[in-house]
Design a protein that fits this description.
The chain has about 425 residues and is of the alpha+beta class. It has helices at about 10-25, 25-65, 95-100, 135-140, 150-155, 165-175, 215-220, 245-260, 275-320, 320-330, 335-370, 380-405, 410-415, and strands at about 70-75, 75-80, 80, 90, 105-120, 125-130, 145, 160-165, 180-185, 190-195, 210-215, 230, 235-240, 270-275.
Length: about 425
């Protein structure tokens, strides 16, 4: 398309005439913009939700520790069907001690978990009670905001000490300082010695702050206990080789097969899981979902563009005599073309701006619910606006060109 030979001041009347033409048919203009409004709002919101999802996954992985491996106990079989990992107590505290001696392992935290009711005064809270060792706080990158964690001595003596998460602290103690207070779990009384730093939601939306951590020997001997003395469901391992966790996995597998006397060719009675591979899978899934949602939103923009083209064609037909009169009085074809093209772009831009406001507003409402925190970026905003302008130009060019190619005499004869 050739740039029209117009002086800078000649552009001002074109914009004024385009604005007047759109204002003359306000309702039609608003309905025409609706497709662009929905398209831009959808693009902004979907990209923001996708980015928010990716950041949540990254934060969840970081909170768990990038070097973490989980060793799960075996699964039970019944009637040919195999249950979930951890249903058979095949791992023990002695296994944890042996793994901790490996050169590729930095720390091991055995895990024994159960659901229980914690009581303080007239308040109670159903929560997850986790029995472990001081290594648990290191492997999971956990810190305390008040008090401190228990020690290896507390584990050896089965001390009645508890470190609680922020959710438990809030629901049991309110504004009262928890450290030094005593809570009851089942029939045992525990002294709260620390409050964990908030970590937020983890995988599956579980609240990582809704937890009480006890010395593992205390949890096993004084609470519900385990089916086999000293058995645990999970070993959380921090690898000393972040870039070679496959080697750490191989060492752990070989050691446990030897300790459990598993014959060559027989299945393991445990499993080793690398959380980074889970992270990669979740990130890929999030990216694919974001791309799918964004593509659907872009289709909405294209539909809006088709609406603009149809309305502009109707406008050309309605204003044929006006176009013929302007040409007869000396208006250039380029001026006619640019007037209709400017109208199309103005429709698209107005719809894009309204769509931006709608997208930000919808994101704010979603963020208030706490289900998701959309994350906006200048790239997504620029992309949405750029596509909206391109839609206005591409779908407005044909009607504008059709108007510019009308013959003045034929146009003046139009009824």
């Amino acid at each position: 398309m050739t740039q029209p030979d117009l002086a800078p001041r000649a552009w001002i009347p074109l914009f004024e005439e385009a604005a007047l033409a759109l204002a003359a048919n306000r309702m039609r203009s608003l309905l025409t913009m609706l497709g662009v409004v929905i398209g831009v709002a959808s693009v902004i919101l979907m990209l923001a939700i996708g980015e928010g999802s990716r950041q949540r996954v990254a934060a969840s992985i970081a909170s768990l520790g990038s070097n973490q491996l989980n060793v799960m106990s075996g699964s039970a079989s019944s009637g040919g069907a195999r249950g979930a990992a951890g249903t058979l107590p095949t791992l023990t505290l002695d296994d944890a001690a042996a793994i901790a001696e490996l050169s590729s392992v930095r720390a091991v935290a055995p895990l024994s978990q159960s659901q229980a009711q914690a009581v303080y005064g007239g308040r109670n809270k159903a929560t997850t009670v986790t029995g472990s060792t001081p290594a648990y706080f290191r492997v999971n990158n956990m810190e305390t905001t008040a008090g401190s964690a228990f020690t290896d001595t507390d584990v050896r003596t089965s001390a009645n000490l508890a470190v609680i998460g922020p959710t438990v602290a809030r629901e049991l103690f309110g504004e009262e300082p928890p450290v030094g207070q005593r809570i009851r779990i089942q029939r045992q009384v525990f002294e709260v010695i620390g409050v964990l730093k908030p970590k937020g939601l983890g995988f599956g939306g579980n609240d990582q702050d809704d937890v009480i951590v006890l010395p593992i020997t205390t949890a096993q001997r004084k609470l519900a206990g385990t089916a086999i003395a000293g058995s645990v469901s999970t070993l959380m391992v921090e690898s000393a080789l972040p870039e070679e966790k496959g080697y750490t996995t191989a060492e752990i597998t070989l050691l446990l097969r030897q300790r459990h006397r598993i014959a060559p060719g027989a299945d393991d009675d445990f499993s080793v899981r690398d959380l980074s591979s889970l992270s990669d899978t979740l990130k890929l899934t999030s990216t694919i979902l974001s791309a799918l949602l964004a593509s659907i939103a872009f289709i909405s923009l294209l539909v809006g563009g088709i609406g603009i083209m149809n309305i502009m064609l109707v406008s050309v037909t309605e204003r044929t005599r006006e176009i013929g009169l302007r040409m007869a009085l000396g208006a250039r074809r380029a001026s006619v073309l640019w007037q209709f093209l400017i109208e199309s772009v103005m429709l698209s831009m107005a719809g894009a701006l309204i769509g931006l406001l709608l997208g930000f507003g919808a994101g704010w409402l979603i963020g208030r619910t706490g289900a998701m925190t959309p994350v906006y970026s200048s790239t997504s905003v620029g992309l949405a606006l750029g596509v909206a302008i391109a839609v206005g130009i591409c779908f407005g060019f044909w009607p504008a060109r059709r108007a510019a190619q009308l013959e003045p005499v034929e146009a003046l004869r139009h009824q």
